[in-house]
Design a protein that fits this description.
- Two copies of one chain form a homodimer.
- Chain A is α+β, with helices and mostly antiparallel strands and 150 residues long.
- The first copy, chain A, folds into two domains: 85 residues, Orthogonal Bundle (Arc Repressor Mutant, subunit A), CATH 1.10.10; 56 residues, Ferric-uptake regulator, C-terminal dimerisarion domain (Dna Ligase, domain 1, 2-Layer Sandwich).
- Chain A is 45% helix and 19% strand.
- The first copy, chain A, has a three-stranded mixed beta sheet. A two-stranded antiparallel ribbon of chain A has the order 1-2.
- In chain A, a hairpin with a 7-residue loop joins strand 1 and strand 2.
- Chains A and B meet through helix 5 and strand 5 of A and helix 5 and strand 5 of B.
- Chain A binds a DNA duplex (25 and 25 nucleotides) through helix 2 and helix 4.
Chain lengths: 150, 150
DNA sequence: TTCCGTGCAAACAATTTGCAATAGA
DNA sequence: TCTATTGCAAATTGTTTGCACGGAA
């Protein structure tokens, strides 16, 4: 049940010396309802549909607090604002630099790379915070050259 | 010889209907001299050491023009400003989200991943515009948990 | 002569910060 | 009570745009 999840997250905030305010409750509810790939601005719009008094700044501060607890995380997918996700919804992002489309790929495809980077460089890639830029199938057929355009 | 390279790049600009101005010449020289991983701001500082009249805006516009010709490219490595590179200096970036260090990895490590993404998703990753976020060897030993901190 | 590139100011987008008032624990 | 959190305004950072002038082709 979603509301259980909300209470659980609020409890986690409290346990870490934080407080369970109404804005935080509303923001968390909205976040759980929303699709993933949400910017702070989009999240704020959704939140303000029911609670216009909740300020953009508060949303920024709330997602930050939730990130510190490992409940959400954000990715910078090239240009534009950061995208926020629930932490249990971890996957890789393939971002098309021609059309901006984001394809999601399962972790599996990256297992070899992960082993390789860890073995060769001692570098542990973050499965969540990981975006691959390139060209999607559709743009590749439309633009045969495969040249970047931003 | 570096100055040959400068003339070659200016010729390329001219060939595409552009003009070879003094600011552009200076910016290109500075870019060729500099280490890679240069922000526009850093590049401007270097340029202005010899030519204080050259404006930040001009540097932005010049690197943009050079990118359109495929001579340089930029990457967003997580937070902060974009990093600019010469196109012939293509490599992958492993960005440590704890200390910000950028490790460079040869293309080789990514060959399998590239084949995999192309086969499974028709997605062609851009070898140049590609950053992997994670934790470097040193931070991993320092912070045993391996928890993000931004 | 044409029109591209420049400097400068100002706009912009995304995010962060300072601060007094408010409201959880 | 005590202090974390909020709303609001304002500051910051990185980048882009408008515009009149000057210089390359």
């Amino acid at each position: 049940m979603a509301s259980d999840r909300v209470e659980q997250i609020l409890a986690s905030l409290r346990k870490n010396g934080g407080r369970a305010s109404t804005p935080r409750r509303v923001i968390i509810e909205t976040l759980l309802d929303a699709r993933h790939h949400l910017t702070v601005e989009e999240l704020t719009t959704d939140v303000q549909a029911g609670h216009p008094e909740i300020h953009l700044t508060t949303v920024y501060r709330t997602v930050e607090a939730l990130e510190a607890l490992g409940i959400v995380y954000h990715v910078h997918l090239g240009h534009g604002p950061a995208q926020w996700h629930l932490a249990d919804d971890a996957h890789q992002h393939l971002v098309c630099q021609s059309c901006g489309r984001v394809v999601e790929a399962p972790d599996g495809a990256f297992a070899e790379l992960r082993d390789r980077l860890e073995g060769d460089f001692g570098f542990l890639p973050d499965a969540r915070h990981f975006a691959v830029v390139g060209w999607c199938a559709e743009c590749r057929s439309r633009l045969p050259g495969g040249t970047p355009s931003r």
